[in-house]
Amino acid sequence: MNEISVFWFRRDLRIEDNAGLFAALSGPYPVLPIFIFDPSILDKLENKKDARVEFIHAALTQLKSEIQKRGGDLLILHDKPLHAFQSLAQKFSIKKIYTNHDYESYAISRDDSVRQWAESQNMLFESFKDQVIFEKNEVLTGQNTPYTVFTPYSRKWKEKLANSEWKQFESENLTNYIPASFEIPSLRQLGFEESGLSFPSLIFSDDLIREYQIKRDYPGLDATSHVSVHLRFGTISIRKLVKRALGKSETWLNELIWRDFYFNITFHFPHIGQGLAFRKEYDRMHWRNNEQEFDAWKNGQTGYPIVDAGMRELNQTGFMHNRVRMIAASFLVKHLLIDWRWGEEYFAEKLLDFDFSANNGGWQWAAGSGCDAAPYFRVFNPYLQTQKFDKELSYIRKWVPEFQEFHYPKPIVDHEFARKRVLAAYKEALG
């Protein structure tokens, strides 16, 4: 058996500017690239038309084609990761495993088990920073503690960026792959079907970036890049996007920094991955958790058109405009007094760009329980939000065309009543 390295693709489904892949292809052994569909993750997806699996499958098909052009091929496995590597080691003489870092608790423990096994077999296991610009302990306060407020974090982040030699990796120019040919399993073989959703393109203009600050809050405009799903699965590199943002839009750059910030929170405060509030005193909240009201929220039938428009957009496209995400999340928590974790779980099931760290960060922000959160006493008024951000009602007309019809539901709760009720509930819980 020839000696080889393995490169393990996960959240980095691209040839271009891939840190771990660059290291593997620059190493002494020819590289076998693999991707593992992990049943521990797939089996939790009840919807067998989950668009994210379809997106990954399409990205892998593209990735396979790019690797084939360079003389290799992508091996796609459907197995528990440790077992997949144990099986591979019976067919190949693996000297080294390369991959890129992940920051969620399950991923860290998964990687640790593969690393320990690899070392017991005299293989090297090496992981690289790829999906963020700065990670772990690279951006810390003056007291060497992690930041929990975004604004000072972003200042330090930008200062560090300006003073560091960050580079892109020309992994697309390297061809040190093992010659091979593998079949790609179909979606059906993985137990899934096509969703019928369309996926956003990676092509968007510099003008969109330049105008982002002015237009980003208006859901009726097509003024956002929709690049989040590509970032989520790594079909584009964060370094490429930061390079595009510099000098064009501080606001667009800040959105990329928020992403790094939430990854850092996930890494440094793993208790949030166990369903706990970032600020633990908020776990004393008494939620109403009315299931009929939750269903009305999920289905866009609350009688508040801006909320219903957002939920319908989510259900039909797998996307929701960021301003409307805040309004819909605030409504569930503050107007209906439903546990933010219910909403977090629903978004996790529906969002094409679902990423635990950003989703959890957003929901805890809405609930007031997170780092750098909106104070609990700020309650979005859906009517004022509509006046401010959808004055012409173009977004609402698109998703809730019947909002002025007799059969459209009456508001599920009175805004002023809900506001007083939630403030009383928070005061009681927080003493």
Automatic annotation (TrEMBL):
Q: One Pfam match, by short name?
A: FAD_binding_7
Keyword flag Endoplasmic reticulum: no
Q: Which residues form the signal peptide?
A: none
Keyword S-adenosyl-L-methionine attributed: no
- Show the PROSITE patterns listed in the entry: DNA_PHOTOLYASES_1_1, DNA_PHOTOLYASES_1_2, PHR_CRY_ALPHA_BETA
List each copy of the Photolyase/cryptochrome alpha/beta domain by range: 3-133
Q: Which UniProt keywords apply?
A: Chromophore, FAD, Flavoprotein
* SUPFAM superfamilies the record matches: Cryptochrome/photolyase FAD-binding domain, Cryptochrome/photolyase, N-terminal domain
List cofactor names only.
Answer: FAD; (6R)-5,10-methylene-5,6,7,8-tetrahydrofolate
The family note in this entry says: Belongs to the DNA photolyase family.
Q: Which PANTHER family match?
A: CRYPTOCHROME, CRYPTOCHROME CIRCADIAN CLOCK 5 ISOFORM X1
| Name of this chain's protein | Deoxyribodipyrimidine photo-lyase
Q: What is the lineage of its organism?
A: Bacteria, Pseudomonadati, Bacteroidota, Cytophagia, Cytophagales
